[in-house]
User: Fold GNAT family N-acetyltransferase from Sphingobacterium paramultivorum.
Amino acid sequence: MNWTSDNYYFTKLKKEELFELIHFYLRTTAEYYNLDDSLNEEYTHHYKNLLGEDLSFFDTSIYYVLRDRKMHNIHASIRITYWDRETILPIQKLFSVSKEELLSQKVNHYWHIGRFIISKKIEGQRISILKKMLFDAFFPPHFLDNGLIIAECDKKLVNTLLKLGIPSYELGSPIIYLYSETLPIYIRTEWLDYFIQKNKVAQYCLANSDDSDSFAIKAKHMGFNDNNGGKNRVSN
Assistant:
């Protein structure tokens, strides 16, 4: 059963749409905790930080967003980024996890996942949407094998991932970040085997399979699947 909806569709985010994405992400996060999302000083601070991160990640990332068919507003998002081992990750700044600690895992490629959120306004198909988004984001690292996915993850989402058959390793204690209890985690690509195989059969990935395949193949050809810190990478 392929994922379809009369009301929503998945698409890739364009760079000029990052402003829209960050506003959606912060607004939706505030809605989950019944907070005022007005443009106060804290909101502006978070907006500038998140936009800066996404601008630095965009060229080695793929973003999926769920939009409604009527107004084309964003209602869900996720991002998967190849890490060049040089760009500073949020996990390093927020949790003081060193680059050396991450690189000590001795894998061939590293990834960062983020901007994963689904609007509370979506009442139906939430589980199907969640599985599809995770599948499409996890597929490129899993395709290349022997990789590591790094994330700053809401504690409740860590538990949800485990229920879906995706274990993770906690690199430190939780902190309150963007209003939620957030953990520094990583997921080895082999830990995704169960989830990928189960949902590949369910064909949650079909609508974006070409994008995911192309991104994974591009990563491999650009030297992302090496063990020398990406030094073989060819410029765009």
Remarks:
- The first helix runs from residue 18 to 32.
